[in-house]
Amino acid sequence: MSDRLTHQDIQTVPSGVGSSAPSGPPLDLFSYFGIICENSIWYATKYPFGIEYFANNNKAKYFGGPEEFNGKKSKIVRYACRPSQR
């Protein structure tokens, strides 16, 4: 597994490319990340690239291999789509 995830990992294009860039295949995020709702709280249960988190210095860190943690539940604290950066 690489140190950073890229748009090639999920076969999409980076947002900086612009709206005329070809898009990858549709991605059902609920199935891909195993997103479930229990007691009004969203959880992820699939980890196709392991786990990414941000350290105190705001640098991304990774651990676990692809699908190593599948079946475990992680509370989704924040979920957002970033606008295209031009």
From TrEMBL:
Family matches, as InterPro entries: TRA-1_regulated (IPR003326)
Domain of life: Eukaryota
Annotated region (Disordered), positions in chain: 1-23
Biased composition (Low complexity): 13-22
UniProt xrefs under Pfam families: TRA-1_regulated (PF02343)
Name recorded for this polypeptide: Uncharacterized protein
